[in-house]
Amino acid sequence: MFSFSGLSVALAIVLVPGPVESLKEGECEVCVTFLGKFYDSLKDSNTNFNSADIEKQLLESCKDTKGKDNRFCYYIGATSDAATKMTNEVSKPLSYHVPVEKICEKLKKKDSQICELRYDKQLDLTTVDLKKLKVKDLKKILEDWGESCKGCAEKSDFIRKIIELMPKYAPAAAKARTDL
Fold first, then answer.
1. Quick one: pLDDT at residue 21?
2. What is the pTM of this model?
């Protein structure tokens, strides 16, 4: 009788699932954000929620991405230059309306790089002192706007270009700034 209860306890320990490793706050930021927007766009466009249609939409959606979103698409194999393909790990769960956080948890187990992606901090152009920024950060502002600074050699050239373009790309910041 005693050996039977010991066996049942051992069996119970083996069969009881361990703690599920859920995402911590801010973890998998790019994955959760990108898939959240993608899921919302699927709902808005009244797409058929089957795996094939979702995968086709995912590939189409990833064509237009840049920055961290493009890197995420690369990791899941949704870009043309990707070496691996895990798009079915996204499309199939989405077809069953699985929350994006759960999908990202599963993707993290397959490839931990996916959850290491973070968006760059956005600068508040209304208050930031452009003269104190590094040239790298000034170039990043122009790159985010889709602009370049041909012939810029000095930091002051980049600052001048940003101030010149600010009314077009960040009109609220341009109005709020007093140093223009």
1. 59
2. 0.68
Angle between helices 68-76 and 29-44 (to 10 degrees): 80
Q: What is the pLDDT of residues 100-155, one digit of tens each?
A: 999 999 999 999 999 999 988 778 888 888 999 999 989 988 988 888 889 899 99
